[in-house]
Amino acid sequence: MTAPDIRPLAPEPTPDAAVDAPASRPRRARARRPRRRTVLLVAGVAAVLVAAGIVAALLVSAHLARQDALAELATARADARAASAGLNLAQQQRIDAVEKLEALLGHADAVTAITGTGIDPAATEQLAAARAAIAVPEVDASPVEPAGSLPLDEADTAQLRAYATAQHDYADRLDGRAEAERSAATQATADADTLTAAFTVFAEATVEEGDALLGERADAADDAKAALEAAGDALTASAPDALAAALAAYRAAVDAVVTSSDAARTPASGHIGTGVDDPTSLTVVVNKRRALPANYAPNDLRRPAGVGNALPLRAVAASAAERMAADMAAVGIQLRMSSGYRSYSRQQTIYNGFVAREGVAGADEHSARPGFSEHQTGLAADFDDGAGCNLNVCFRDTAGGRWLAENAWKYGFILRYGDGWQPTVGYRFEPWHYRYVGETVAADMHERGITTLEDYFGLGAAPDYG
């Protein structure tokens, strides 16, 4: 019988097998290498994708930042354009307001230059004070420097933002200038309203003065009185730009009333109109339309005693000047003379000298042509008090100037060329020039408020050599 096969199902390991067992591990390691490469590849791709995402995010962020900067710049530019338009509007408002104010100031000057009978001096002073208190507002005229320029395609975000800031600053400066312009316009408008109100007050006060004159001169002709009333109504209804012309017409109407009244009173005051054409008369009237003979010279000239720098006058005028000088000295005022009698030839020399320096028009403002000078009568004197205002308008405000203005009529002297009388007498204000007309005429003129010989004798104005 065959013995059973008892070999194991699997051979037992031999020593060689045990030695060779580790050799199988490298084969397993090689089998796992492809999976590691995959992991590394995936990781690399992921890193690339992350990097790309970061770059993309940065690019998007930079783009958005630039867009924001451009939007901010657009807003700043719009603000600057709006501010520029606002400044232009404010400048025009200021220009319009200032032009209106300057016109009103000129009208005020023209109105206050007109004085005389029928015009309340206090009303004139009030209007002059209102005008003097107003100054034309001024603003900074220098240009507002712009923000400059920037090539936008080449500018980075930081540059864009800086440029936007500069544009905002430019807009702010434009707004500041516009505010100054608006403030000046507001001030000019307020001043114009104030001056306009002052015109109204002046016109009303002047008409009241005219009404008072009509009461005093009730003996004037009815048509003259009616014309003055109409002129007063026109005066109060006049706009500022027409007020000076209306005032001149009113003054002419006042003069017509006074002349008419004087004519009605002639029988009661027989000296009116006497001797106005006679060079030897104390009431001779000499002006730019009434000349003296070239060869006329008084035959009774003498220098008044007690008068500083005494110059020749006719005897009757010299005596009056002596009494006046004595009374002035009693109150501490010295009476001096700058001019007295002048011959035709002497006046010609003086006048020609002024013409050489100032021209004919300039000379005619204050110097008579030969033959047309009151000094040739021997009845006119240029007085002074030694206070430093000889032949100067400031003489009006000296002690001597004030004393003469208040008292000279008592001695037979009248102020001949008063402030604002040029349209009638032909010469600008000379507070030093006095004319002797005799105590009777001087007192009558003072009592009746008549200021010029032309008005007193009804001879008409003599503003020029017409």
From TrEMBL:
Gene3D superfamilies with a match to the protein in the record: 3.30.1380.10
GO terms for biological process, alphabetical: proteolysis
Pfam families on file: VanY
Molecular function via GO: carboxypeptidase activity
Ranges for domain D-alanyl-D-alanine carboxypeptidase-like core: 313-438
InterPro entries xrefs: DD-CPase-like (IPR052179), VanY-like_core_dom (IPR003709), VanY/YodJ_core_dom (IPR058193), Zn_M74/Hedgehog-like (IPR009045)
Secretion signal, residue range per the UniProt entry: none
Oxidoreductase in keyword set: no
Biased composition (Low complexity): 15-24
Name the UniProt record assigns to this protein: D-alanyl-D-alanine carboxypeptidase family protein
Superkingdom assignment: Bacteria
Transmembrane segments: 38-60
Keyword entries, A-Z: Carboxypeptidase, Hydrolase, Membrane, Protease, Transmembrane, Transmembrane helix
Cited CDD domains: LD-carboxypeptidase (cd14852)
Region of interest: Disordered: 1-33
